[in-house]
């Protein structure tokens, strides 16, 4: 539209203003309207009504428009539907003559083409290229398929023929996509030859092979050379995945359509392109729709469940959407919304949403991301069961997914008939939340949750395609997503850089772990799985992890000219950039700490640990170097779950060496992970760890903050291990007499050699620390 107007039109208002001055009569055609189905309601209710009076809109497609265009009162007399058939004899003859066919051949060709425009166009080209071809001998129902085959055979050279096959695999073909699929070809020359073919259309966003020809070529290629067909799709996926990282917001829809086009799995395709929904329209509910919605709920739900839906309508009617049939009547509805936009007190009144909200609060998403509650969908005649109404609801919900990226992180939904939906839900990545199941009206309402991951909908969608194509999911090229600014640290666990997230426009910390830590491909997969699980933690005293993945590039050039080589597949963690000092740096400058400062730090560490322990996570490597304090005094625990993730990558997690000479940072295969002077006895002995191991490390930190000395640090690794296992630390009161007795007791309880004699987890510890802090203040 911007090209027609002659200037950029980033907003609807800009487009409307431009169309208004373009001329006295402007025709706006939406060709292949099927691809706009996700936007049908928005186009009908928002976009078209805003257009100036000089604009006429034409919807062109192979399927009829949704009936609501004809039945809705506001469109009466404004919309007309016209079914286009084949050309009559005179029109067909004129088309053939314009194509260069001799007049004496026009009747012969149209005798079997019967006015079909594409058949006429293909036959005209074939007749000109091969005058001796007897077109009438072709069976009428195979005309297009046969002509497509003949044109493929008749393409001048093998390179163009190969390019046509590759182009038919994608929704559209661009020069970059063609180059990725055919890396050995002359891209520009091949692209030009493709654009000159009779059945290839040149559009604003690339070349498109006509559907009928495309289907014939793809069917033939899939059957004759399935390996090449798969490789074309994989190459297209990789290129699209790379390009979408730099795409502007206006381009995301185009790349989404490209990705969806590559999906052939019937379960996934049905979820995105549900059958049976074409004649149904979905739109926001109006006040007068309440009676129909309540009737559908009461017909298909028990009295309690229907009552909660009615209560929610009274609170938030704007969260409901209705499905209208061909006659305009309401045949179903769904309810979907962002819980952060409603009063939490209202959520507490609904037993299902109360459980969801509790799960969200205990498993927070990053600040820049959000969740959706899909409270219910119901069909008037089929309830929650698969049906055209359910299909229409799902299709509209997918539109919401796309609109909310890249912020959408999770979706919660509820179903009663879990076995029916389990196959598709599992394939799409939904996980059941057994703790959120609830009984209403003698029926169990199950909850399923989909976590899209740090890359939101685009990352999830890319993963679905990758899974179908048998591609190991990898991170996008890191230099396309992150711009490295400077090196800010290094240690046994890798190198850390300050970087800019070029997508979300924020500074982050990037930690790269040496590839040799993780061994095999399977080891790296275990590392990513463990690290991503721990990354779900969200608490003010835990450093937020934005992404855990692995790089595809080979090296980086750092601004200070230091070259840091990173092997392909090296894991990296993108996390919150915490500006401030580590607790170790603070202790180096000032030790021991004043009691008030000591307790403030201790309480914040315990707050973070308590949150993690409540979800079953153990740090395993808690030490002052892994605790950051911001300039405002906010404390952040770093590297939660990293030690376990590195251990998980090893081939034999049980093979722990107790006799090897250990450096300070212990991160290699067969070696205990952690810093010896803060490790618990059970870690050094290679026994299982649990939250009580973190309690021991916390007690050591308390001892250091209170006295300025680590009670276990020896002159060697062996001496330090011996001290942790056998030594009883000097009483705190001998080193600092003014310490509160309760603090001494808390520290000694944490440092018990036997886990059973320590606090069970940080929640009990936190209660005692808060009590002590309150008594002192």
Account of the 3D structure:
- This protein is an alpha+beta fold and 777 residues long.
- It has six domains: 2-75, no CATH class; 89-152, no CATH class; 155-262; 281-458, Aminopeptidase (3-Layer(aba) Sandwich); 474-577, Phosphorylase Kinase, domain 1, CATH 3.30.200.20; 581-776, Orthogonal Bundle (Transferase(Phosphotransferase), domain 1).
- The strands form six sheets. Strands 5, 6, 7, 8, 9, 10, 11 and 12 form an eight-stranded mixed sheet that branches.
- Strand 6 (320-324) and strand 7 form a beta hairpin.
- Helix 26 packs antiparallel against helix 29.
- The termini are far apart.
- 37% of the residues are buried.
Give a quick summary of the entry:
By secondary structure, the chain is α+β, with helices and mostly antiparallel strands.
Sum up the overall morphology in one term: elongated
The CATH topology of the largest domain turns out to be Transferase(Phosphotransferase), domain 1
Biggest pleated sheet: 8 strands, mixed
Domain count: the total is 6
Poorly predicted ranges: 474-480, 553-565, 652-674
**Strand segment count:** 22
Known CATH architecture of the largest domain: Orthogonal Bundle
Percent strand equals 15-25%
The CATH superfamily label of the largest domain reads Transferase(Phosphotransferase) domain 1
Helix content: 40-55%
Secondary-structure class: alpha+beta
- Give the class-level CATH name of the largest domain: Mainly Alpha
Kindly report how far apart the N and C termini lie.
Answer: 67 Å
SSE diagram, text form:
Blueprint: H1 2-5, H2 12-20, E1 26-30, H3 40-50, E2 55-59, H4 68-71, H5 89-98, H6 103-113, H7 117-129, H8 143-154, H9 158-169, H10 175-181, H11 187-195, E3 200-203, E4 206-209, H12 211-224, H13 226-244, H14 249-261, H15 266-272, E5 281-284, H16 290-300, H17 303-315, E6 320-324, E7 330-337, H18 344-347, H19 351-362, E8 370-379, H20 388-404, E9 408-415, H21 418-428, E10 430-432, E11 438-440, E12 443-451, H22 456-469, H23 478-481, E13 482-491, E14 494-501, E15 506-512, H24 521-534, E16 545-550, E17 555-557, E18 563-565, E19 571-576, E20 580-582, H25 583-589, H26 595-614, E21 627-630, E22 635-637, H27 642-648, H28 681-684, H29 691-707, H30 717-726, H31 732-735, H32 741-750, H33 762-776
Parallel strand pairs: 1-2, 8-9
Antiparallel strand pairs: 3-4, 5-6, 6-7, 7-8, 9-12, 10-12, 11-12, 13-14, 14-15, 15-19, 16-19, 17-18, 20-21, 21-22
